[in-house]
Amino acid sequence: MTGNSNMNRRDFFKVSGMSTAALALGTSGILSLGSKSVSAAPGKPKTLGGYGPLVKDPGGILDLPQGFQYRIISEEGGKLSDGRPIPENFDGMAAFNGPHNSTILVRNHELSGNPKYPVIGKNPYHKDNTGGTTALVVGANRKVSKEYVSSAGTIRNCAGGATPWGTWLTCEETLEEGHGYVFEVDPQEPENKMSKTPIREMGAFSHEATAIDPATGIVYLTEDGGPSYLYRFLPNDRSQKAGSLQKGGTLQAAAMEEMSSDSSSDFYTGHAFGIVWKDVDPEKPTYDAGQKGCIAFSRLEGAYFEGGVFWFDDTSAGDKNLGRVYRYIPATNSLELFYESTAANDLEMPDNICITPWGDLWISEDGGGVDRIIGITPEGESYVFAENKINNSELAGPTFSTRGDTFFVNIQNPGLTFAIWGPFARKNAGRRRQMGHAAPPSQYAPKVSDKLSVFAEVQGLTDLEAAAFSRHGMPIA
Asked: 355-367, pLDDT tens digit by residue?
């Protein structure tokens, strides 16, 4: 950045959000649905706005755009490689490189009590608990060659997050004594000592998801409770290796405060409001965050870090409890409200989220009706990619193979894992960065009054940043 040391945040985002070349997305091909195939008529190429309308699945399982295929690669109650049943309640998931051009999936099972198909491990954290994780080795042919338990003995493994070093952080969504922790799972060393050792300094609370900034090693964490707080963990060991998070660190929660001029943004010297991070006690972080005036969200869910931006959502926030999506930008220490659901804008209760290899934001719904995968582009368009046609269960654990040619996702109940492939756009690192600073589609953008917009301009805020402050009670306009 040169030539203007007083560039404000609004100008910074305009520069960093410059558009890139359009992507041409082909839509012709064969749609293979279960054991049946449907010839898809050639159509005009779609640009930027997705892949066209969904095609009805003759099997009544999963509707996708024409040209795409799916295969069910795992089903609850089936057999693991050792003959034990595949556990139920599929949830969060991530994909890693495996041997011989394979993909290794690590999958959570959100279980407690006495389910029909529990996670049965050989080296559990607590032998009487039924949650945990499994792993699937998926070949280049998109078929499973091996499926096994990778951690066991935990409770309600809801979501989590991949680490840059190839492990999975699985999170317990519970307040039960002795639980509510994060565990690190190495799918290539299943059920090792690390997998059953809680990372206590990352807090005991109703965990949902994690995401790591690869530039700093800072771990961001969401809480699924009422209220919920947004946390970050500053590891003592930033080597980014398996087990390094076990060496302790500092847990903090996000707050909004008026800031003196000497604490304001480097981009605008008059900035009066900002995000601060307050140390909290990892043994009682929810209580501590509340006592210290941290931001109280409704019920935080999905988390994803991409291109210098941390994305997360509040699935039941807003006047109608239909959800919001936020993004936090560490470089500018700014929190923005990117999306806000209303009764009319047709996106209900965002849950798991990811950034696609070509740069779109994909959101899994977890509402009361039909649940879908919704895509939002950096160019401000939206589209539907997939729709669950079996029942009203959520679509969970969206993740792409590292090659970007296969999309994996679960239906939670009955537990099904899908491999989906077709004319996906090519990987595009620049467009993934662009998504972090793009404006939302107009129908999803939070409503900002003229008064608030003027205030934002004066203070060097984006409208989306001002909306985040306003929704959480800061008297800024």
From this structure: 999 999 999 999 8
